[in-house]
Protein 1
Amino acid sequence: MPPTVAACQMAVDDLDVESNLETVESRLSGLPERVDLACFPEQALTGFVADDRITEAAIPRDGEAIERLVESADDADCGVVVGFVEADDGAYNAAAYLDGDGVVAVYRKQHLWGGEREVLDPGDSRVTVKTPLGKTGLLTCYDLNFVEESAAMTDKRVDALLVPGAWPATHSDNWRLLLRSRALDGVRWVLGAGRTGRRDVEDAPVTDYAGRSLCVRPDGGIRAELDRAERDLVVDIEPSVLESHRESVGIFE
């Protein structure tokens, strides 16, 4: 059976970890049994505002919230990528890859955007993990704009990229274009899980989010995508597609 992935597109309650955690747990429990890997949006557990409130909402990678998701991943029998603001001698825009055995890896977003720079620290390393898709790289949202990140993942010969995002709705075409570009320039699968809904928090700018989660083939074509609805994009990934495109392009000869 080919691996099956899910981009779990959701709205986020900014600064309300318990509400978001319950949403993620519920979405995991509702996935089809065949799903091997589920990806949630950027900062899905914490949301984000560019002031001191985000440091109060930040959570550690080894805390209760992540432990609960490990249990949920075990129940669902799938790997999970989930974004959150991580508390650890500073605050980071993080994405954890975990399964029923625990946290496998945590990627900290290297390229911070806008107000993130005022309250968060950038990551300083690239992360790859073994997933049902093969060797897989983790990027987060604005990282897509930096071609050197894509090139580095090509050097690492990754088979797929998993990209949690929270892209503003006004620039949704850029999100789609960049996901397609990062698939094509490394001849790999790309799964982008986007935040949808609206951030409407007191003393913070109101922001509508794009949603538009999508799965991109190694030739840059769109395999499947969503609009802005809160639902799951479930896609079967045929390994022969990657093999045939790499043979055609000759990128790793």
Protein 2
Amino acid sequence: MSEKMRALVVTRPGGPEVLEVRDVARPRLRDEHDVIVQVKAAGINPADWQNRKNGAVYDLEGDSTILGIDGVGIVVEVGREVTNVRLGDEVWYVDGGYAGNPGSYAEYKVVRGDYVAFKPAGMSFAEAAALPVVGLTAWEAVFDKGQVSSGDHVLVHGGAGGLGHIAIQYLASIGAKIATTVSTETKAELVRTLGAELVINYRTQNIEEALEQWKGEPGADVVFDFVGHDNFARSFAHTAAYGTLVNTVVSEWPAEGNGPAEWKNLDISFVNIGLPQISRNHGHRLRQSAILKKIAELADRGRLKPHIDRVVSFDGVSEAQRALEAGETLGRPVLVL
């Protein structure tokens, strides 16, 4: 087997133009707990372009970075202590792309064996690659932090995006009343098919007024901010008194500080699925693997389906990242190797 593999690397901080296809060293098992996955597809996630733009986050052969924080593929090598998967198994994972760990924009990826889970059996590699990061993040937001119950009035910011369109499916499965924000009619059509009851075009409509007319009183019981940045500060006004606001994106706190949250008795929660990797917390990583198993079960029962914005090869990743950063995508772009 060749000692080299093809990978899409970043050689310096910058725009999509800094991505470069190279032959690099093929990864090896680091110890008896690892597996090697032949990567068949990888999600193209916001964290990927953010890491590209902000600079190399670890070195590969001294001067480059491999992005890609999730992937799907076939197990081709197994460490002697690995018992949960075998050669030939089709698996997925959230691993690498930062924190000193090469990502999945490459033909092969080394992963600790108990951090992988079986991919949905009924999905192609491309379909499955659209799910790990968004499925995991939306799961923690909806079920762990949002604590949504049937009948709750919920607002999903960015409903047609990678996170939003998965969260809407989770919320619909538990009987929540769902409102969501979009920017185009095409995006509105998608979220309606997924179960959104109220669709708000934030460019032409007043979100607070639309929510009050829909619910009969101000604000949603739970607000999911999948847009972040200055949208987080605006979301305080979209949350009902004694409500919950869940954020998943680096954001700006309101200029008034804690005031808006204290006045309305809000619960504010955050989801950062990268923390277990950065902190190297083994227990938290195992928790994520367990959630990926639950997501696969939902998908195999036909209760969860990702919307793929586009499928690209290495040559198409630059444009896909640009579109993702610009907010032009529906669902999740995918890299297929």
